[in-house]
Design a protein that fits this description.
Layout lengths: L8 E5 L4 H11 L3 E7 L23 H5 L4 E6 L4 H12 L3 E4 L5 H4 L4 H7 L4 E6 L11 H7 L20 H24 L3 E6 H7 L2 H10 L16 E6 L5 E5 L3 H10 L3 H5 L6 H6 L1 H12 L4 H10 L4 E3 L3 H5 L2 H4 L2 E6 L2 E6 L9
Parallel strand pairs: 1-2, 1-4, 2-3, 4-5, 5-6
Antiparallel strand pairs: 7-8, 8-9, 10-11
Protein name: CoA transferase
InterPro entries: CoA-transferase_III_domain (IPR050483), CoA-Trfase_fam_III (IPR003673), CoA-Trfase_III_dom3_sf (IPR044855), CoA-Trfase_III_dom_1_sf (IPR023606)
GO molecular function: CoA-transferase activity
Length: 357
């Protein structure tokens, strides 16, 4: 069950993050993935997206390594007739093609769906674009975060909107495309025919807005940046610090959890206050409530109160950096190691679900 796609062949004509993330997903689950990179630009552009302390002599960057696991990579020139024929030969026996061509490039190179469908009727043609198939607007994650409204609600204040620190829109689009491919594979098992699937980064971004979008659509509520706080729940996202300097985030989702919190920190006065009796009242008075909780946590030992709150089923999390995270045994089990072009690389697995018979 760890290699459910070992019979599948995937050709990846995609670069940067979203498309390669889809290819990596299938590679992790056993598929044979051939990644075709642009020879004229020295391969996938992310090969050169290095941190300041990464060696320029490394064949690949850490960024490239993150979403290019378990693949065979070839650098070809799609303007060269021999190279394009090689690509077509590979596609003729492939199950899935992943691409993120600029508008019109698929037609220019003869790699559009209609052409390839004639070559391989069972091919599942999966593509990612920026703002829709009719748009040639250049799309990078931060642009999408700005234009989808995400940046307007992220950060601490309206003067300094902040992007999410990971290219989440690329990852959202990758998940959408994976879902489409999996549905197409099921349908192909019934009909024997391939299919064309496409997703835009813009649509994926809007689809991810969830309750924030609904808050606007139903109540005309335009969210403002409120840091880690939740617009509908309190105390949720509030950060408190123990007397030994450990920072924790609270995620109180119901009255019972609030009661358990107040009991464990010995603040019955908060529980008895009419200002905090319901979630909506706590949202209305969240600043005053946060101040009271902060004062109390400053008097408490971190490890002790964290243990007691966990046992009392109070949602609380310790703020960790990545060094803290990957010192944990559970996190270490998700690390995948691989040598790419003679270089040792590591990344976190993307297919982390469990399937058992």
């Amino acid at each position: 069950m760890n290699q459910p796609f070992k019979e599948l062949k995937v050709v990846e004509l995609a670069s940067v993050l979203a498309g390669p993330a889809v290819g990596t997903f299938f590679a992790e689950l056993g598929a044979s993935v051939l990644k075709i990179e642009n020879k004229s630009t020295y391969g996938d552009v992310t090969r050169s997206w290095r941190l300041t302390d990464e060696s320029i002599h490394n064949p690949v960057s850490a960024y490239y390594s993150a979403v290019n696991y378990g693949k065979k990579a070839l650098q070809l020139d799609l303007k060269d007739s021999k190279d394009i024929q090689l690509v077509l030969n590979e596609i003729s026996t492939a199950d899935i093609l992943i691409s993120n061509f600029k508008k019109g490039d698929d037609l220019k190179y003869g790699l559009d769906y209609k052409t390839l469908q004639q070559l391989n009727p069972k091919l599942i043609y999966a593509s990612i674009n920026g703002f829709g198939t009719d748009s040639d607007k250049v799309a990078f994650d931060v642009v999408l975060q700005a234009e989808s409204g995400l940046m307007s609600m992220n950060g601490e204040n309206v003067e300094t909107p902040v992007k999410l620190p990971i290219a989440f829109i690329d990852l959202f689009a990758a998940h959408q495309l994976k879902e489409g491919i999996l549905i197409a594979l099921i349908q192909r098992g019934i009909s024997g025919k391939g299919a064309q699937i496409s997703v835009s980064l813009y649509d994926a971004a809007l689809a991810s807005l969830a309750n924030q979008a609904t808050n606007y659509l139903m109540n005309n509520h335009i969210p403002k940046p409120i840091g880690s706080l939740h617009p509908n729940i309190a105390p949720y996202g509030e950060i408190v610090t123990s007397n030994d300097g450990i920072k924790y985030v609270l995620a109180i989702g119901n009255n019972q959890q609030f009661q358990n919190l107040c009991k464990e920190i010995k603040r019955s006065d908060l529980l008895e206050s009419p200002k905090y009796r319901t979630n909506q009242l706590r949202v209305n008075h969240r600043i005053e409530l946060h101040m009271a909780l902060s004062e109390t946590f400053h008097l408490l030992n971190g490890a002790d109160i964290y243990k007691r709150l966990i046992e009392a089923k109070v949602p609380i999390g310790e703020l960790k950096n990545l060094k803290d995270v990957f010192e944990d045994e559970q996190a270490q089990r998700l690390i995948l190691e691989e040598e790419i072009e003679g270089m040792s690389t590591k990344r976190v697995a993307t297919a982390v679900f469990k399937i058992s018979e």
